[in-house]
Specification:
single chain; mainly alpha; two-stranded antiparallel ribbon; two-stranded antiparallel sheet; flat
Length: 807
């Protein structure tokens, strides 16, 4: 769409909105632009897409800001950096406007925002009138982008000394309210579709019918269609709506629809022919919720019901608990019920108060993760290591956006179990061979073919693609480097030692491969270094760069350079010195490092890398001299460096077991991840590992022993290739994860009814008797044989002794 880029802002805005509305009326959709993937989500909850009108208006606001304050706001990196990254010619022109004043900027922004707000109101009303989800989500994205821009500009006005009394708070508040209102309307629309169309089926809901549904060969269509709709809607929300908003909408859908289903099945009074249908549907429903619940949780404590902080998740656990009680009462065979309720004086564990344990319903449907139902107090610390990691990993990969604190927690929890697992397999993988075979199966993606440095999305600052040496390395090597980088930067010596265990205890046959990098003659061979050594030297390199530049600028000798390195020792993570000592102790006898120590080998490799990156003749000459460094000639300088690193290590100390508290104190992960995200290398390491986990989720669960028994552990996949395709429509329709529908009916899922009746569930005799009276055996005893009639009579007598509680 072409728009006028010159003239008064208000005139341009009026024309822009007129053309945007005309485009909608002609095509019945909103013209949208994609935002850079790097900015989607976050604290401000940026959308995936925003309307062309909102994108253009925000660009014009930036131009007005530059004119008023004579500096960029940094909200639009394309204008601020002038690098051309993600900048169109129109946007570059828009940044050049006449000189203005802050008061004029505030007035124009507020007035134009009011016009856009009115325009979005019109579009949203059209979307609601026609139940058009595409237009509604497009309008929501536009409002979210504009809200975030207004928030940023308002913060800049508050901090500026020249803008006393100026504020955009009212405009921001209006757009924030609009985003919340549109999210509510989106939720209402989905809930109406669910309740009116998905959860209604006259045939399967005809409980009183004397003929079995579908001849008793399957459960009802309702749960199947609900499952399919929830899966499809989750994918749509994740790809269209701002992540946090998408999560809230999906949580509301799941909670509301589960309320309807819980009430329906807990109050159903089926005939003798359809009594089993209720039990089959409830079992299917609980299995479905198990797969949907991770998407709205923030950690494993919420997932397994050991946290009450999230109200919606708490409500869902309560409803699932009610469904489990209903399943037990309705589905338990009469013979087993008779054994538990034949003597009025016998205690029944199911009536006992439920202790603080993981939600029983979740353990029932996730029996491959829980070997038994705990009866005493139980916390997340009591979970087995592999189960704890698998549960948090499941929550992490179900989120609409990457949760960096949770990712860091998963990598480092339980003595860096996952990091150690990943590194062990990655260093024994032949990347070239692995990827050559995989490329035969999958064609190169568009990202692989493209040499562009940016994604060209709106707000792109050029940070969404790999840079420097990482771009030319194999993905497996990148991932191994990333694992070591994170362990060294935020872990303790124990964490790093656990991750490096395969190197420290490598067999004789692999000494040359894993330890050749520590030979003094291999300082120059940066490309031949293994991933773990590359990661350690790359952490060193940025901090040692000042010493190299100073030596080159002043034409100093190697001795002066090494002296400068000693002075910079306190700028490096103390973990590196600890790592060098671990490696020193495990150093093979035939490997002789530079300067006689692994620490000097690491320092030398880092200095060589910095010198070669500078690309100057002087740097190259110094690099060659460094490779030929004689231990005896530079003995005092080497001793000085060792002493400096050792002193820093002793003064600052190791983190010890501090990081083990990451499971108990969530903010610790936030602190460490904020430190990582401040550096480009740390940010890239997190993104690399997250991408690897996306491609290899099932493989990792298989290694942790938490993969569903019905699934085969797939091979490790390279992140450079296309991620595994989502399940086909027919597979999603007839399968719940790796399980087929109606497992309880077919007998492939056998519930331990005796164990369930022995589990404390806080079920009162009154509730249980109410559910029992809904069973057709208790309402229609005339259809039973003499034996079953006697069983029903005995159970009824048992509950008659609890008449005071029941009446």
């Amino acid at each position: 769409m072409e728009v006028m880029e010159e003239g008064n802002l208000m005139d341009r805005v009026q024309i822009l909105l007129q053309r945007d509305l005309a485009y909608y009326e002609e095509h019945q959709k909103v013209l949208q632009e994609r935002l850079c993937s790097e900015v989607v989500g976050g604290q401000l909850d940026f959308p995936h897409h925003a309307s062309f009108a909102s994108v253009k208006l925000v660009s014009w606001w930036e131009g007005e800001f530059v004119a008023a304050f004579h500096k960029p706001s940094d909200f639009l990196p394309t204008v601020a950096e002038k690098s051309g990254a993600g900048t169109s010619d129109d946007e570059a022109e828009a940044a050049v406007v006449i000189t203005s004043v802050p008061e004029e900027f505030a007035r124009l922004t507020e007035s134009s925002a009011a016009q856009l707000l009115e325009h979005l109101h019109t579009l949203s009303q059209e979307a609601l009138d026609h139940a058009d989800l595409t237009v509604l989500t497009g309008t929501l994205g536009a409002a979210a982008l504009t809200r975030n821009a207004l928030w940023c500009y308002n913060e800049l006005l508050k901090r500026s000394s020249d803008t006393s009394g100026l504020s955009l708070h009212n405009s921001f508040k209006q757009f924030n309210e609009m985003v919340e209102a549109l999210a509510e309307r989106l939720l209402d629309l989905h809930n109406r579709l669910l309740s009116l169309y998905i959860l209604q089926d006259a045939d399967s809901l005809n409980w009183e019918h004397n003929q079995a549904f579908f001849e008793g060969q399957r459960g009802s269509f309702i749960i199947q269609m609900w499952w399919l709709y929830m899966q499809g809607t989750r994918e749509d929300l994740w790809n269209t709506v701002p992540p946090k908003t998408a999560q809230r909408v999906f949580a509301g859908m799941l909670n509301e629809s589960l309320t309807i289903l819980t009430v329906r099945y807990s109050q159903a009074t089926p005939s003798m022919s359809r009594g089993n249908l209720v039990v089959i549907d409830i079992s299917n429903l609980l299995l479905c919720v198990r797969h949907l619940l991770p998407a709205i949780c923030t950690n494993k404590a919420e997932l397994i019901g050991l946290s009450n902080q999230n109200k919606v998740v708490r409500d869902i656990h309560s409803k699932c608990h009610e469904l489990l009680c209903c399943l037990i009462t309705r589905g338990c065979p009469l013979a087993i019920l008779y054994k538990h309720f034949r003597k009025p004086g016998d205690p029944v564990p199911i009536f006992s108060e439920r202790p603080v344990t993981p939600a029983p319903w979740y353990m029932v449907v996730s029996s491959h993760c829980f070997t038994s139902l705990p009866k005493d107090k139980y916390t997340t610390k009591d979970l087995p290591d592999k189960t704890a990691v698998a549960l948090d990993l499941t929550v992490l990969m179900a989120q609409p956006e990457a949760s960096w604190p949770l990712l860091l927690k998963v990598l480092m929890m339980r003595k860096s179990l996952l990091s150690s697992l990943l590194f062990h397999h990655l260093i024994h993988t032949n990347p070239a061979k692995e990827e050559k075979s995989l490329r035969k199966e999958a064609p190169a993606t568009a990202e692989e073919k493209s040499n562009a440095k940016t994604c060209l999305g709106f707000l792109c600052a050029g940070n969404c693609r790999m840079k420097g040496k990482d771009r030319i390395e194999e993905p497996m090597t990148q991932t191994a480097c990333a694992v070591i980088h994170i362990a060294a930067m935020v872990g303790c010596i124990g964490d790093l030692g656990a991750v490096l265990q395969p190197v420290l205890e490598c067999p004789t046959s692999e000494i040359k491969t894993l330890w050749g990098c520590c030979d003094g003659r291999q300082v120059w061979d940066e490309h031949g270094h293994p991933a773990w050594f590359k990661a350690l030297t790359r952490i060193m390199a940025p901090s040692l760069e000042p010493a190299v530049k100073n030596a080159l600028q002043n034409k100093c000798s190697i001795k002066v350079l090494l002296h400068g390195v000693a002075q910079l020792a306190e700028c490096l993570p103390t973990t590196l010195y600890g790592a060098s000592q671990l490696l020193e102790d495990a150093l093979p006898a035939d490997v002789r490092p530079l300067g006689g120590s692994v620490l000097m080998q690491m320092v030398g490799a880092a200095l060589y890398s910095v010198m070669m990156d500078l690309g100057k003749d002087e740097a190259t000459a110094m690099a060659e001299a460094l490779c030929n460094m004689d231990k005896r000639k530079y003995h005092s300088q080497i001793k000085e460096i060792k002493h400096a690193f050792a002193t820093c290590f002793e003064e600052m100390g190791d983190k010890g077991d501090a990081f083990s508290t990451v499971e108990e104190v969530p903010y610790i992960a936030d602190i460490y991840v904020s430190h990582l995200l401040l550096t480009e290398s740390g940010k890239q390491a997190l993104k690399t590992i997250y991408k690897f986990l996306q491609h290899n989720m099932k493989w990792i669960l298989g290694q942790l022993g938490a993969l569903d028994p019905n699934e085969v552990v797939p091979p490790m996949r390279t992140p450079k290739l296309k991620p595994p395709d989502p399940p086909k429509l027919l597979h999603s329709m007839f399968n719940i994860g790796a399980h087929k529908f109606d497992e309880l009916l077919t007998g492939t899922w056998n519930l331990d009814w005796k164990g369930l009746l022995q589990t404390p569930l806080s079920l009162t005799p009154k509730k249980m008797w109410t559910q029992l009276t809904y069973r057709p055996e208790f309402r229609e005893p005339q259809y039973l044989n003499e034996h079953d009639k006697k069983v029903v009579e005995t159970i009824s007598k048992y509950f008659s002794h609890h008449h005071a509680q029941i009446s």
